[in-house]
Amino acid sequence: MNTDKLTQKANEALLQAQTFAAELGQQAVEVEHLLKALIEQDGGVVSPLLKKIGVSADVLLKDVENAARRLPKVQGGEPYLGRSLSVVMSAAQKQADELKDDYVSTEHLLLAAAQSKGPASDVDRQHKPA
User: Fold this and answer.
1) Among 28, 44, 122, 127, which is most exposed with the fewest C-beta within 10 angstroms?
2) pLDDT tens digits, one per residue of 60-96
């Protein structure tokens, strides 16, 4: 994915996800790291959006952090986009294209993460409002 097609907030979230992965000693940046970044983002729309649909951002954040801690740890090496995050980034770009949006936003990333398969989407589904 071309990072030039990310909004400023989406790019910030991706960079923060990389930081979170590094803090956990993980080389692969995965969807769990991105979700944490999206939920915690200052001035972002994800946390207020979650609240609006009846999802506790604090509870979801705790579960996402727990899922991230279970990811494999690797010492040394350069960070890279993990498989799950690569799939989510492509899906977010596709959603932006279908909506005729010029840029991939944090909303596109959240939707793509929620629709993905894997541990991060399992966490998202557990918090789906009734």
Assistant:
1) 122
2) 999 999 999 999 998 778 899 999 999 999 999 999 9
CA 84 to CA 92: how far, in whole Å?
A: 12
> What is the pTM assigned to this prediction?
0.88
To 5 degrees, how large is the angle CA 37–CA 20–CA 82?
90
Q: Note down the domain range covering 89.
A: 3-126
How many Å apart are CA 35 and CA 124, to the nearest integer? 9
CATH number at 105 reads 1.10.1780.10
Buried b (16+ CB within 10 A) or exposed e, 47-73: beebeeeebebeebbebbbebbeebee
Strands (E), the chain: 28-29, 80-81
- Domains in the chain: how many in total? 1
